[in-house]
Design a protein that fits this description.
The chain is an all-alpha fold. 68% of the residues lie in helices and 3% in strands. The relative contact order is 0.06. One of its GO terms (cellular component) is proteasome regulatory particle, lid subcomplex.
Length: 417
């Protein structure tokens, strides 16, 4: 099973969600709660760097929304310096009088202090700690802590780099628990960079073995997994891994909602339940497109607008979910009337015409619209011809490379002669 995870307490990623909430004018109803949670955390944990990062009057990302108090900041800073001095003393004594394990423990306390305060210097402290740590499991925990810090500051490049590093460590001797935790981290990162296709299997596999509560709540992981699966899985896998998944049904199942019990509060304060997400999943699978469009609008309002990971992809995601539904319906018909299709989706003919026209020119939908006769004609691509053309194209490229290679060899041979 492996040792218990270390360095998993900090940073608190929920604070990043509350910062996002305060940045969104559309979420003004949640501003008071987010403001209270942030200011309470800053006071309780003496988070001077976080206070400076969000509230400073010149460059704070929430300047004006959280009051800047220079005296309060200096008070927090003094507490941080005193705490840091204590850890530095402990580290010095360990280096002079104790063994390697005591030195590593002292360095770990110092790194966790920076992570608790949400100071970017924590990355350097964890890097130094990594060089002194011998255990593969502890090294993985350190890298996961660094990933969370970079997730807090939305450093996607840094997250990707450290996920690769964690993957190498896991492959070299990581235990079962850390392998599964890394799946959640990787899946969430892939969602953040809009790679739902690769994220879906990782997130769905993580549901039954979820232990990464330091990353997000379980219900939030279900949300990410369901949305990634809905937009990327084929119909068979979608049925098996999402619609009929015991882990998904435990959160989305109507029995759960009907019982009167509230679902676990999500990272962004949504306590309305997941009924609209359940409807989205079931209506898409049963081809109830009117209900699907209605629930998609509710999911956009209840989840996509409020979640800091999903919000940046909201326009693209909603557009792709509509295209996904159009594709599924058109696959069943050779010709379908515009009026009939508009009725199935619960929209007007003119609106459907405009929306379909966004996908047809780029061949994201294989159909044409005949407004004179009021029909949509599908023109499915010929896979055999496509494969044949791909082989011809790749063969030509290969021959060209071989010819260039042959010329280079002949030239080098003539030089030797």
């Amino acid at each position: 099973m492996g040792s218990d995870p270390q360095y998993a307490k900090y940073p608190n990623l929920l604070l990043a969600q509350h910062i996002f909430t305060l940045q969104q004018p559309s979420l003004s109803a949640h501003h008071a709660t987010a403001h209270k949670i942030l200011t309470t955390s800053i006071k309780e944990h003496s988070q001077a760097p976080l206070y400076r990062y969000i509230a400073h009057k010149s460059d704070g990302i929430l300047a004006g929304k959280i009051e800047w108090d220079e005296a309060f900041y200096n008070e927090l800073l003094k507490k941080n310096e005193e705490e840091l001095a204590g850890y530095n003393t402990e580290l010095k004594e360990a280096e002079e009088n104790a063994g390697e394990s005591e030195v590593v423990a002292a360095m770990g306390k110092k790194a966790e202090l920076w992570a608790r305060l949400l100071e970017k210097a924590s990355l350097a402290a964890y890097e130094e700690l990594l060089t002194k740590t011998a255990s593969t499991g502890a090294k993985i925990d350190i890298v996961l802590a660094m990933i969370r810090i970079q997730m807090f500051f939305d450093d996607k490049h840094g997250v990707a780099k450290d996920i690769e590093r964690a993957q190498l460590l896991v492959e070299s001797g990581g235990d079962w628990d850390r392998r599964n935790r890394l799946k959640s981290y990787t899946g969430l990162h892939l969602v953040s960079v809009r790679n739902f296709t690769d994220a879906a299997p990782l997130l769905l596999e993580s549901l039954s073995t979820f232990t990464s509560s330091e990353l997000c709540t379980y219900t939030s992981l279900v949300l990410y997994a369901v949305l990634a699966g809905t937009i990327s899985l084929d119909r068979v896998d979608f049925k098996k891994k999402v619609v009929d998944s015991a882990e998904v049904l435990a959160v989305l199942g109507s029995k759960h909602s009907a019982s009167g019990d509230n679902v676990e509060m999500s990272d962004y304060g949504n306590t309305e339940g997941y009924e609209c997400l359940e409807t989205l999943v079931n209506s898409f699978y049963t081809c109830d497109y009117k209900s699907y469009f209605h629930s998609l609008a509710q999911v956009e309002e209840s989840f996509l607008n409020r979640d800091r990971v999903l919000a940046q992809h909201k326009p693209w995601f909603v557009r792709e979910m509509r295209r996904h539904a159009y594709t599924q319906l058109l696959e069943s018909y050779r010709v379908v009337s515009l009026e009939n299709m508009a009725s199935q989706f619960g929209v007007s003919v003119d609106w459907l015409d405009r929306d379909l026209s966004k996908f047809i020119p780029s061949k994201q939908l294989n159909c044409t619209i005949d407004r004179v006769n009021g029909v949509i004609e599908t023109n499915r691509p010929d896979d055999k011809n496509r494969q044949y053309n791909d082989v011809i194209k790749q063969g030509d490229q290969l021959l060209t490379k071989l010819q260039k290679f042959g010329q280079a060899v002949r030239l080098r041979g003539s030089e030797r002669a």
